[in-house]
Design a protein that fits this description.
Number of strands: 5
Bound molecules: P1-(5'-adenosyl)P5-(5'-thymidyl)pentaphosphate
Helix content: 55-70%
Order of helices and strands: EHEHHEHHEHHEHH
Oligomer: single chain
Number of helices: 9
Radius of gyration: 17 Å
């Protein structure tokens, strides 16, 4: 996507199930509100009327074959990009999303075993080449995420029910992509909610001082 002086920042939070993404996206949104910074908070799959319908189909259907899973994720993403993310960035606001393209590489490529080059090509078609300025991967051991979700007491969705090997491949993928791509950073997600929030703000303050400089909880 064309950059302009006014273009906003596009941030994505990622990680394994129960890593604390939704909690941290909400806190980041609250922080931006308190500091008077215009922003949009969204999630994937979802974030639009169509995307939320696709989300229900993806999470609640008994069986979705991997290629259909990929294409549904990308249909939701294309809609989110055109209806929400691009217009917001063009207005110069900060966009924070709970998951984006890195989830597709972790879950559909590494988890489901779909071919990476093909998935990347289709993803670029869906996004028009738009990538987050920074993707933060909340780093927690798989067991911690599972414990947090158990404590929440909600019935597991189709992804949460996948076997341990699937989740291990997803976790490895996050670690590996974070090692090789400059716009992906890992954040220790094992501390308290407030500690993780502070770590995210510190990292954003270093990376985007014009927006998050002097950030304090
Ligand atoms: N998916 C998605 C794909 O396969 N491909 C794709 O391309 C995309 C975009 C989405 C599913 O779709 C898949 C991946 C997912 O399986 P979802 O419900 O959005 O489904 O799943 P998650 O993103 O994993 O969301 P969860 O809500 O399950 O987990 P979060 O957001 O990581 O965790 P959160 O913040 O809800 O916290 C979970 C619990 O832990 C507590 C919270 O209070 C909550 O009870 N908690 C903490 N407790 C202690 N210390 C902390 N630091 C805590 N942080 C949170």
């Amino acid at each position: 996507m064309e950059r302009s002086a006014q273009r906003g920042r596009f941030l994505a939070l990622e990680g394994v199930e129960g890593a604390g993404k939704s909690t941290q996206v909400r806190l980041l949104g609250d922080w931006l509100t308190r500091h008077g910074l215009p922003h949009v908070v969204t999630r994937e799959p979802g974030g639009t009327a169509l995307g939320e319908q696709v989300r229900r189909a993806l999470l609640e259907s008994d069986r979705v074959i991997p290629r259909a899973e990929l294409l549904l994720m990308l249909a939701a993403r294309a809609t989110l990009v055109d209806e929400v993310v691009k217009p917001a960035l063009e207005r110069g606001v900060v966009v924070v999303t709970d998951r984006f393209s890195l989830s597709t590489l972790a879950y559909q490529v590494r988890g489901r075993g779909l071919p990476e080059a093909e998935v990347r090509r289709l993803n670029t078609f869906a996004t028009g080449g738009l990538e987050p300025d920074l993707t933060l991967v909340l780093d927690v051991p798989l067991g911690v995420g599972v414990q947090r979700l158990d404590r929440r007491g909600r019935a597991p969705d189709r992804f949460e029910q996948a076997d341990a090997d699937f989740h291990a491949r997803v976790a490895e993928a996050y670690a590996e992509f974070a090692q090789h791509e400059k716009t992906i950073k890992r954040v220790d997600g094992t501390g308290s909610v407030d500690e993780v929030h502070a770590a995210i703000l510190a990292l954003l303050g270093r990376r985007f001082p014009e927006t998050f400089g002097g950030a304090a909880v």
